[in-house]
Amino acid sequence: MFAEELAVFPGRYAGHLYLSLSALFTGLAVSLPLGILAAPRPRLAGPALGVASLVQTIPGIALLALMVPVLGGRIGFLPAYLALALYSVLPILRNTIVGLNGVDASLREAALGVGMTARQRLTSVELPLAMPVVVAGLRTASVWVVGAATLSTPVGAESLGNYIFQGLQTRDWGAVLFGCLVSAGLALVLDQAIRAFELAAEKRSRALAILGGVGLLAILAPLLLTLSGPRDVQRLDRDFAIEAEPLAGRTIVLGAKSFTEQYILADLITRRLEAQGARVELLQGLGSSIAFDALVQGEIDVYVDYTGTVWATLMEREDVPPRAVMYAETSSWLRNEHGVLAFAPLGFENAYAYAVTRDTSQTSGLNGVADLAGSGLTLASDPEFFGRPEWTRTRDIYGLQGLPTRGMESTFMYEALSGGEVDVITAYTTDGRIDAYDLVLLDEPAGALPPYDAFILLSPDAAEDRALHAALAPLASAISNADMRTANGKVDLDRLSVGEAGAWLDLQISN
Amino acid sequence: MLEAGETLALIGPSGCGKTTTLKLLNRLIEPDSGEVRLGGQEAHEVDAHDWRRRIGYVIQSGGLFPHFTVAENIAVTPKLLGWDAARITHKASALLEMVGLPAATFAARYPADLSGGQAQRVGLARALAGEPDIVLMDEPFSALDAMTKDALIDDVARVRRELGFAAVIVTHDFSEALRFADRIAVMDKGEIVQMGPSAELIARPGNDTVARLLEAPKRTAAAVSAAFSEGG
What we know:
The complex is a heterodimer of chains A (511) and B (232).
Chain A lengths: L1 H6 L1 H30 L3 H16 L2 H11 L6 H25 L3 H9 L4 H31 L12 H9 L3 H31 L2 H15 L3 H5 L22 E7 L2 H16 L3 E8 L1 H9 L5 E5 H8 L8 H16 L2 E9 L2 E6 H6 L15 E3 L7 H10 L6 E3 L2 H9 L5 E5 L4 H4 L2 E3 L11 E6 L7 H7 L8 H12 L5 H13 L1
Parallel strand pairs in A: 1-2, 6-7, 6-8
Antiparallel strand pairs in A: 3-10, 4-10, 5-8, 5-9
Helix pairs in contact in A: 2-3, 2-5, 2-7, 3-5, 4-5, 5-7, 6-7, 7-9, 8-9, 9-10, 12-22, 21-22
Chain B lengths: L6 E5 L6 H8 L11 E2 L2 E2 L5 H6 L1 E4 L11 H11 L4 H14 L4 H4 L9 H13 L5 E5 L7 H18 L2 E6 L2 H7 L2 E6 L2 E7 H6 L4 H24 L1
């Protein structure tokens, strides 16, 4: 697992650095002139600072996600770069204005008195005297931007955030910690390098300038890893089908949302496409709606979604039809409304189910959801579940109005359940922990919970691609609930890598 | 109305317009009407910054640029005038010696390392660096203690005699005006109410303002001479 993560490190680090530095330079290039213009003009300074403050109040992850629709569905570097550049404006702009206005009025007058023009006064008196304050703003911006760049994973820009998002979903705390530490280290070193350059300029010290240079070199050094080995070293062990490669020379962009199952399925599909000679570009950890928008725009060619998700969040339907009807209706809606092809179901479904421990099921005599009424047990789910129609329908159909509920992060639900803190949780039917914790899924005969069949979606262009169809065809209805649950468990519980789980699933399908 | 090499003091109560008058001369404030001439040239015939490079300017707290060394502060106007480096260095050293600060000790210091009197001496050297025909001084001694002020007034008067530039000094202290200026202009409410040599003002104060202005120095002089005659 470690080797696999290290192999993707240069790309993620380089992406993170490139993103952060571009955003910072852009922020500086915008804020410094704007600050110089605005400092003597309160009518301009007020609104400019107001807008910048407003941008700052938008949570980083929302600002990044908002850039995708603003750019008409573009994902990847551009939306992340623009959001981070916007994010860096406030501290630099504010400090430029404060710094320039903080220059002693008698010095400003003296500068004119000795015969400087307004421009000479700006460059040789006002800016040098304001510089410590401006640089402090730049340092604040650099810490913010390097930190916020970890949030660019959901919009499809590769960064150290990939470690964090993937680690959070696969409960790989080592990866989360690694992503956090490297990004924090990068922020600190960059901050101190800027500080060293500032002091070097102020004290005219060569030693400090060299120290700053060493800091920058330290930041750039990990990039040398990119040059020292092939980027796709983790793919070298794969079997390439040499004889017929219908996708040879083609690049397929594959999307994946940010949870374990999606990472494994992306790995599986990558194997299948590479076996046909394609080069696969993988955009992992995408936000759910961002992945779909990107598919419609052709930014990605293929990803896996779920019928219930399309039904509820994209079609905004609240009724729950039978499984086959939902599949047919979502497929035709996708094709007619967006030109997206629902290529094939994968065979398993990742739905909500109400789960209890075997102990609880026996002692409380629980078989179905209906038995929860009046049981005095506590139900836990992610906080948003209790606001969704799945829950209100369950509650109304089975008369669960009196059931105590608790919202908690899904990662911690299983421990809370086995620890007896709560009695019932909503589990995903493909979660490996259902087997590991020996949980019992309660019968839900009325169909209050909608089906969530996994299906492969192709962008309008990819929909016409016969060679791609052929490569993906063997995956149709090829994965059982049990196999998906086992594969998820390999990552979430057995601490195997996504690649190992993907290889295992690949093997199950081939057999 | 100011002859070459002549010194004029603008004196009057706070808010009487003496600093405004001074700033009109170097165009830090532009006049609503009237004109300012120097050596036959009208102020608005040239750019404001070119005009100011021909006029030395000394302000109360020195106004030295804290990120420049003493030498760099003095070199500002000569650089703007496009002098070559050797001439600038030579000029800065000569001026530092003249105001009583040896260049070897002071040239590389920053303003933060100077006393108030030293900073004001550097401020004077900076004002003189562009070899102006006229120097404007806005309360140049008022932030200094009595001993420092006394020594500095003598030195400034000496430097002025040596270099021969004309000067306009703004002050609210009659004894400063008396010691430094050939003529004194008393201002009140934006107008010059009387102008002439100090002896003339003392002998024939033209109105109440001038008379009131003279009362305090007269009482001080009387007290001082009484004290000295008792002591002597």
